[in-house]
């Protein structure tokens, strides 16, 4: 299975890169922290080398031994996996659900650093994320320029034109999800060309296209809106770098077009899946844009910082996003987060990992309705913007999946296809 290939080949590659990154920063750790920094680096590397060995030799998954706030939940989840195996031995790297062991690896990478001060705040993936951003400069420039030109006339657009622009930016945000460093095991995955130029050609590759439903939801929310209640959209972020810039442009468009009053962003509280957005990445990206010597890019950065200061943009992170649980258990495991998401008019879930967690990462029949696969996870109307990089997909028309499968056996994992898949909730 694709899961087997991921655990056997991709995850050890990612661990090797992490170890290499720490090696390369040895002198920096020494400059900043003296011998203590070098000792911490050695301990972290030894911890990670042991982890790589456990993975490659299919050892049992062990309980977390750190004191971090989520350790108890992780260890409870391991017990839950043990019970699932019905006494067929301990859950191990190759005998467990893919989603679980993959999340577990990233949590163990975090522990390797968190348990080794003074380098406990070092993000081993930061360089890759920054590189992705800088290598996508041309695409970022094109998008910021397009967007700032659009803003000049946004007040004059009629409803049809607004809808067209929204659909364009939703597609840019969708295809930006191709730039994923955990998928390429950290290899270059930057966006080189103007993302707006290829949208027309990519429409046939959107397997489920519910953009019309998003539009009517937003327009109706706006009409129903009274002075008391703001229209709120939440974006559950995926990758930093180019994809994040797409998401920020989409969020700015939603505000500037007066379709919504506030946008809430949800990122990861620890470095995750190589390129996932943390608070540091979020702030760093806005700062980078501000300081670029390009009028429209820096204008975007300045406006976005202004949105944060005014409180019309809000950034959150919550430990739940980096737990192994799928989202159907959020109401039970993280009731505070679930209650917050219930305040939203629309939740936009970016990317493949969020899709896997929405649908429980099961091998569904392609035609199973999205609503059913969500397994009672309905805090608010929600939509997945995702390019397919794992073999889980629901909500297709009869025969649609089989037809593509016949000519493209790798269609579910190549990142070539995407969905804009909506569920209205209860």
UniProtKB/TrEMBL annotation:
Domain Damage-control phosphatase ARMT1-like metal-binding intervals: 6-404
Cofactor(s) listed: Mn(2+); Ni(2+)
Keywords: Hydrolase, Manganese, Metal-binding, Methyltransferase, Nickel, S-adenosyl-L-methionine, Transferase
One Pfam family of this chain: ARMT1-like_dom
GO molecular function: fructose 6-phosphate aldolase activity; fructose-1-phosphatase activity; metal ion binding; protein-glutamate O-methyltransferase activity
A cellular component annotation (GO) from this entry: nucleus
GO BP: DNA damage response; methylation
Gene3D superfamilies membership: 1.20.930.60, Uncharacterised protein PF01937, DUF89, domain 3
Annotated catalysed reactions: L-glutamyl-[protein] + S-adenosyl-L-methionine = [protein]-L-glutamate 5-O-methyl ester + S-adenosyl-L-homocysteine; beta-D-fructose 6-phosphate = dihydroxyacetone + D-glyceraldehyde 3-phosphate; beta-D-fructose 1-phosphate + H2O = D-fructose + phosphate
Key word Heme present: no
Documented EC number(s): 2.1.1.-, 3.1.3.-
Entry similarity comment: Belongs to the damage-control phosphatase family. Sugar phosphate phosphatase III subfamily.
Description of its domains: Subfamily III proteins have a conserved RTxK motif about 40-50 residues from the C-terminus; the threonine may be replaced by serine or cysteine.
Protein name: Sugar phosphate phosphatase
Organism: Opisthocomus hoazin (Hoatzin)
Lineage: Eukaryota, Metazoa, Chordata, Craniata, Vertebrata
């Amino acid at each position: 299975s694709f899961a087997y290939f991921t655990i056997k080949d991709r995850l050890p590659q990612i661990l090797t890169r992490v170890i290499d990154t720490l090696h390369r920063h040895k002198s920096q750790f020494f400059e900043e922290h003296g011998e203590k920094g070098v000792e911490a680096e050695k301990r972290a590397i030894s911890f990670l080398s042991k982890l790589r060995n456990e993975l490659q030799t299919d050892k049992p998954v062990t309980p977390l031994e750190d004191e971090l706030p989520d350790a108890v939940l992780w260890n409870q989840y391991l017990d839950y996996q043990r019970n699932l195996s019905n006494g067929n031995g301990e859950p191990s790297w190759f005998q467990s659900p893919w989603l679980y062991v993959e999340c577990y690896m990233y949590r163990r990478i975090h522990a390797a650093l968190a348990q080794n001060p003074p380098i406990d705040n070092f993000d081993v993936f930061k360089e890759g994320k920054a590189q992705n951003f800088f290598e996508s400069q041309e695409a970022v420039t094109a998008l910021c320029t397009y967007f700032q030109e659009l803003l000049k006339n946004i007040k004059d657009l009629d409803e049809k034109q607004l809808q067209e622009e929204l659909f364009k930016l939703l597609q840019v945000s969708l295809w930006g999800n191709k730039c994923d460093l955990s998928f390429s095991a950290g290899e270059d995955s930057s966006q080189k060309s103007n993302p707006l130029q290829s949208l027309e050609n990519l429409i046939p590759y959107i397997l489920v296209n519910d953009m019309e439903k998003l539009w009517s939801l937003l327009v109706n929310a706006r009409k129903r809106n009274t002075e008391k209640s703001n229209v709120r959209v939440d974006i559950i972020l995926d990758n930093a770098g180019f994809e994040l810039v797409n998401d920020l442009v989409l969020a700015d468009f939603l505000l500037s077009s007066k379709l919504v009053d506030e946008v809430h962003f949800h990122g990861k509280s620890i470095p995750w899946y190589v390129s996932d957005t943390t608070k540091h990445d979020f702030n760093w990206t806005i700062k980078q844009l501000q300081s670029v010597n390009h009028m429209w890019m820096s204008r975007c950065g300045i406006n976005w910082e202004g949105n944060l200061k005014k409180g019309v943009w809000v950034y959150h992170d919550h430990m739940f996003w980096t737990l192994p649980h799928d989202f159907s258990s959020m109401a039970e495991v993280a009731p505070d987060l679930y209650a917050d998401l219930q305040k939203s008019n629309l939740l936009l879930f970016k990317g493949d990992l969020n899709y896997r967690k929405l649908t429980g990462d099961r091998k569904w029949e392609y035609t199973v309705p999205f609503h059913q696969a969500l397994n009672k996870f309905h805090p608010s109307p929600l939509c997945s913007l995702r390019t397919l990089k794992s073999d889980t997909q629901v909500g297709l028309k009869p025969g649609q999946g089989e037809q593509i499968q016949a000519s493209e056996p790798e269609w579910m994992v190549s990142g070539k296809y995407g969905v804009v898949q909506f569920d209205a909730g209860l």
